[in-house]
Amino acid sequence: QVQLVESGGGLVQAGGSLRLSCAVSGTIFMLYDMGWYRQAPGKQRELVAVKTRGGITTYVDSVKGRFTISRDNAKNTVSLQMNSLKPDDTAVYYCNAALGGVNHWGKGTLVTVSS
Question: What is the rounded CA–CA span in Å between residue 17 and residue 86?
């Protein structure tokens, strides 16, 4: 059974930093494209960043230059370093593992950025 467990969320002031981590178990991690999504109150879930199994990285425009996604295939983890946080970054952040059209999700971790 594939399991994704996020950690690292919390409350931070605008301009601050947080690092989210996602530990993956129950599957062959290196085969998956790994991503972070977020869902703000009253909004649809959106892709924040993805790092494919081949190492290609994509970011949503609003976080470019501020967020960095990384993965460690030896530790089965994916991380999201978030710098220069803004109140608009407030959301529940979800870890995603995708392979062949099948998606696995974590339960999410809340990030709150105060102004």
Answer: 10
